[in-house]
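Tutorial handout. Part one gives the primary structure; part two gives the three-dimensional structure as tokens.
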Amino acid sequence: MFTAQVKKELMLKKYITIFLIILSFLLLDIVTKEYATSNLILSYPVHINDFMNFSLAFNYGAAFSFLSEAGGWQRWFFIIFSIFIILIIGYLILFDKNSGYIAFSLILSGAIGNLYDRITLGYVIDFIELHYKNFYWPIFNVADIAITIGVILLLYSATLKNNKII
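Part two.
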């Protein structure tokens, strides 16, 4: 049985971990997007290796450019939707003792990174392009990587670990 002091220390460690995950991925996202916009030319891929290019793209939609040609209303829809998701995940991290705070912290950092772009620029900066021969994956960014890792951790936890959330 934990004492009150041990519980406080564990909670402090949890919140420090959450803060460091969010801050680290958010800063990495901002720095890499700044690098991409400063050093890449829009829609002009730079070959990195046989399966990756850096190719600057502005995504006005959501994942896979969903609704990117919708005429502008989608910006506000995705801003409101992102804020809603951020609030829900923030609540789960703070108040649900069984929440997957590591996974949710990754998702939260990515959501904040892309939300920042949408609010300040009206689009999300993407620049990482993976491909195999003539098959190209949609261009993405570090925030998308954080979201994807977070979702994979949640799915892994829910399916393979007897529903215990990471």
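Part three, for discussion. The longest strand covers residues 124-132. The mean pLDDT is 87.
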